[in-house]
Amino acid sequence: MILCSTGAFFCFSFISVTLSSAAPSFTVDYKNNSFLKDGEYFRYVSGSIHYSRIPRIYWKDRLLKMYMAGLNAIQTYIPWNFHEPVPGVYNFSGDRDLEYFLQLCQDLGLLVILRPGPYICAEWDMGGLPAWLLKKKDIVLRSSDPDYLAAVDNWMAKLLPMVKRYLYQSGGPIITVQVENEYGSYFACDFDYLRHLVKLFRSHLGDDVVLFSTDGAGVGYLKCGALQGVYATVDFGPGGNVTAAFEAQRSAEPRGPLVNSEFYTGWLDHWGEHHSVVPTETVVKSLNEILDLDANVNLYMFIGGTNFAYWNGANTPYAPQPTSYDYDAPLTEAGDLTQKYFAIRDVIKKYRKIPDGVLPPSTPKFAYGVVKMKKLRSVSDSLDLLSVSGPVKTLYPLTFIELDQSFGFVLYRTSLPVDCLKPTPLSSPLNGVHDRAYISVDGVAVGILERDRNITINITGKAGSRLDLLVENMGRVNYGKYINDFKGLVSNLTLGAEVLSNWTVFSLSIDEVVKEGLLWDMVSEQDSESTHTAAPPTSLSLPTFYGGTLEIPDHIPDLPQDTYIQFSNWSKGQVWINGVNVGRYWPSRGPQITLFVPASLLSTESPNNITVLELEACPCTWGQCVVEFTHTPLINSTVMYIKPYTTEKTLNTR
C-alpha cells in the first residue's frame, strides 16, 4: 500500500519511481498469445547474423544496417568448435569476442535471440560440434552418451555464466535462449538428453529466461523436438502456406506467440550446384503474411557472411558448402545493400516505425589488379617443414583425429607392393576417402579419389614405387545422422585385390607454416618465372605452393578497401593473405569464382603476401601465372556437376 499524505503530486512521483526501478523482464504471455517485455506487449522482427562469419571490424556496420532496416532484434549462433579448438582451451578474443559482439548489439539498440547449441547446424563444420569429440569413435552425438554429456557440461560451464551477464533480466540484450537446434530432425529422439540440457541451462541462467526450441513446421518434427518447459517455435521459408505452418506450432503450443525462428530469405549453396536465389517478391509476400498474423519472425539469413579458412560444413550425399555464405540475403556477403534489403524494409515499416537517419552505405571495393605468382615448393618436397610433429609409421591408415588434427591436409605415403605394368585399380571400396585425395606415384600426379563420387582410379608403377595421397578435409557434415564425420583415409585402400599397408603418415601444419612465412624462404631462381609458353597440360600436377606480393600505394586516400580475389585458369586450392586463411577456391567446379577479401587483411605499409596452395593444376606451366583482385563478386558461374555414385537422396532441409 502507498500512502499519499503530502499531496497527489508526491504520490504520483513515488509510484513512477517504484515502477521504473522494477527489474527488466521478458516472458511469454500465454493468455494474449504474445511476448511481454517489461510487462508490455512485444513482438520481435529479427534477422540472423553470425559473428563467426564476419570480421570483427565490420560487426558494427552490419548490425547498424540491420537496425536501420527496422529490425528490433538479431539472432546469432555460438559455434562451440570456434571457441574450444582443443578440450579445455578457450578462445574469446578478436573475431571470437562474443561479449564484445553482445555489448555492441545492446549499444545499437538491438535485442538478441541467442542460439548456443551445443549443436547449431548453420552449414558450419560438424554443426558447431568440435571434432575432438570423435576421439571416442563410437560416441553418439546429440544424445545422453555420458562422454558427450560430460564435454557439453564442461563447455556450458564456461559459456553460460558469460552469457548470463547479458540476459535481459540482468540488464543485457538477450531476450530468449535456444536449447539445442532442430532436434526433431535428428534420429536419436532422446528426451533424456533434452531434459539434461534444460536442467543445465536453468542451473546457469536461472528460471526467468525464456528457453525455446526450433523445428521444422510439421507435427512430425515437433514430436521429438518439443519439450515441456521450452517454448516450441517453427521454421519455414517463403512461398508456402503460412497459416498451415503456424498450425504445426499450435500442435505443440496451443497458446502463446506465433514464432518463425528461421524465415529463409535465400538458401544455402554447394560446390557443383548453381548459387541459390529466392525471388524478392516471394520473400516479401510471405513476410507480409507472417507479420499480418501478429507473429514474431527471424529472417535467416539477414547477412550470411563468409566461411573463412575451413569452417564450411557439408550435407549428404557428401556435398560441401563453398567459401561464400552469401545466402542471397538482404545484405550480401560483403555487407552491401540489395534490392531485397529495401523491399523487406518497406514491409517492416508497415508494422513498426523505421529508425530515422541515413543508411550506412555499402563498403567501397577496389580492383587492385593482377599479382604475378611464382612457384614456391610442392607439398611433397616440403614435408620436413610442414610436418612439425614428424612422420608416423602405421600398418593401416590413421584418421585426422587419431593424429590430433582437425582441419586441413594429411599426407599418406606407402610403396606399391607389386609391379603394375598395366593400369591397375587403386580403390577405396568402402568409400573411405574423406574427402578428397590427390594421388601421385614417384612424384608424378596420377589422379584424384573423391568421396561419394570417384572411388577408383587406375595407376601404373613398379614394385617399391612411392605412392602418395594428399587427403583434404573439405568440411564435416553439419546436418543429419552422419555428423560424426571422420576425416582422412577412414578405411583401407586396395591395389587390385591387395589391401595396402605399411603407411607413413604426415600430419601437416600448413596454416602455421604459412603464417610464419617459412615457405617464402624456399624460392629458387629457377622457380621464379611467372609465365611459360608450353602447351596447356593434359594431366594433373602435384599439389604445390605459389606466392606473390600485392603492393598498395599509401598515398591514395581511403586505401586499403575491400576486394575480391579470383583465380583465372586455376583449378582448386586454398589461399592465404598475409598469413590469414581466406578460404577455398574451386572455379573449375563452381559456382563461386571470387573470394571476398576484407580490407582488414590488407596493408598499405608493407607488401601483402599472397600464398596459394594449388591442388590440381594451375596456368603457371603454360600461361600467365597470376591471380587478380577485382571489385566485382562472382559467386554464380558455370557449374561442373558430378553425380554422386550413391542413390541416397539429399534432404531439402537445413
Question: How would you characterize this protein structure?
Answer:
There is one protein chain. This protein is α+β, with helices and mostly antiparallel strands. Helices cover 19% and strands 25% of the residues. The strands form 8 sheets. Strands 4-5-6-7-8-9-10-11 form an 8-stranded parallel barrel, surrounded by 5 helices. Strands 16-27-17-23-20-21 form a 6-stranded antiparallel sheet, with no helix packed on it. Helix 9 (280-292) runs parallel beside helix 10. It is globular, with a radius of gyration of 27 Å. Mean pLDDT is 93; it is low at 1-20, 524-535 and 646-654.
Oligomer: single chain
User: What is the CA-CA span between the terminal residues?
Assistant: 54 Å
The strand count comes to: 34
What is the helix content? 10-25%
Biggest sheet strand line-up:
4-5-6-7-8-9-10-11
Gyration radius (Cα, Å) is: 27 Å
Low-confidence parts, pLDDT < 50 over ≥5 residues? 1-20, 524-535, 646-654
The proportion of strand residues reads: 15-25%
Assign the structural class, choosing from mainly alpha, mainly beta, alpha/beta, alpha+beta, or little secondary structure: alpha+beta
Reported for the largest beta sheet, the result is: 8 strands, parallel, barrel
Summed up, the helix count is 12
